[in-house]
Amino acid sequence: MQDSFDIVTIVFLCLAVFVIWRLRSVLGQRTGSERPPVDPFARRDARNGEPGARKGAPAGQQERAVRPANGDGGNVVHLPGPANDVTGPERPADPDRWKGVAEAGSPIAAGLDAIAALEPAFDAKGFQEGAKAAYEIIVTAFAQGDRKTLKGLLSREVFDGFDRAIGERERRGEVVNTTFVSVDNADIQAVDVQNQIAQITVRFSSKLITATYDVEGKVIDGAPDEVADVGDTWTFSRTLRSRDPNWLLIATESGQ
Fold first, then answer.
1. Which of 14, 49, 218, 228 is deepest in the core (most CB within 10 A)?
2. Residue-wise pLDDT tens digits, 18-35
3. In degrees, to the nearest 5, what angle opens at C-alpha 158 toward C-alphas 154 and 159?
C-alpha cells in the first residue's frame, strides 16, 4: 500500500514538473529588459522616444496627432480634443458674400454676418428659398384650417391667433379656397441677432387666387377667377447653434 502511494506521488510530481517547464517555454520569464506596455492613447512621437508628451497631464488634455509616414512634422493633422480646439485669427469677411441678398456694408449684411459668425454654414439664399416654401405652406394650411401643419411652423402666439381666426371662420360656416400662382419675391428687410436668437424679417410678393364662401356657398371675399397680387411681411426666428433647424414664424403683417 505504501509503495503504491509512493509511485502515485512520484507520477504526479513528474507531471507537475513537466507542466511548469512547458509554461516557462511558452510564456517566458522576466529578465528586467522588457518593453513597457504600449499606451494606445499616447502620442506617436512619444512612443518613439521623441519629446513632446506632457508627463502627468490628463489623457484628454494631451495633444494627439497623426503624422505622415515620411516623418515630416510640418503636416500634423490634429484630432478633436480640448488641447486642439483653438480658434485661429478670423479671416476678413467677403464683401460680396451676400450679393443678391443684401448690399455690402448695410445693416442687413451686418445682421447676416452675425448669424454666420455663430453658424458658418448659414446660406442666405437658401433661407430665402425655404422662406418661400414656408410661406406657401402656411397660407395654404390656414385656408384649409390645417392646425396640425401650422403648429409646427408658428410660434405659440402666432398659432393662437391663427387658431382663433380658423375657429371663428368654422363657426360661421365659411370656406376658403386658395391657389398659389407664384411666389415672386422673398426680400430680406431686416436681421437682428440678440443672445444667439436670430430674427429675419421677409417681405413676400406673390400672386394667388383666393375666394371665401359663406355657408350658402356664395363668394363673400376675393374672386375664384381672378389672380390677385399679395404682399406680406413676416418675421421668422430661430435659436442659433441649437439642434432644431426650423425657423418659426413669430410675426405677420399684411398689405400691398
1. 228
2. 555 554 444 444 444 433
3. 65
Other residues' Cβ atoms within 10 Å of the Cβ of residue 113: 16
Contact 245, 235 (CB under 8 A): no
Residues in contact with 123: Cβ distance below 8 Å, sequence separation at least 6, in sequence order:
none
Whole-prediction pTM:
0.64
Give the Cα separation of 38 and 248 in Å (integer): 53
Class of domain 124-254: alpha beta
Residue 6 grid coordinates: 509512493
Task: Write b or e for each residue in 136-148: b if 16 or more Cβ atoms lie within 10 A of its Cβ, otherwise e.
Answer: bbbbbbbbebeee
Distance CA 250, CA 153 (A): 9
Query: Rounded to whole angstroms, what are the CA distances from 12 to 4, 7, 112, 221?
Result: 13, 9, 86, 108
The C-alpha atoms of residue 201 and residue 111 are separated, in whole angstroms, by 11
Determine the angle formed by the axes of helices 156-172 and 124-144, rounding to 10 degrees. 30
Neighbouring C-alpha atoms within 13 Å toward the C-beta of 248: 15
Domain locations along the chain: 124-254
Per-residue pLDDT reduced to its tens digit, 119-173? 999 999 999 999 999 999 999 999 999 999 999 999 999 999 999 999 999 999 9
Half-sphere exposure of 256 (CA within 13 A, CB side): 2
Contact 223, 212 (CB under 8 A): no
Tell me the C-alpha distance between 211 and 174, whole Å.
10
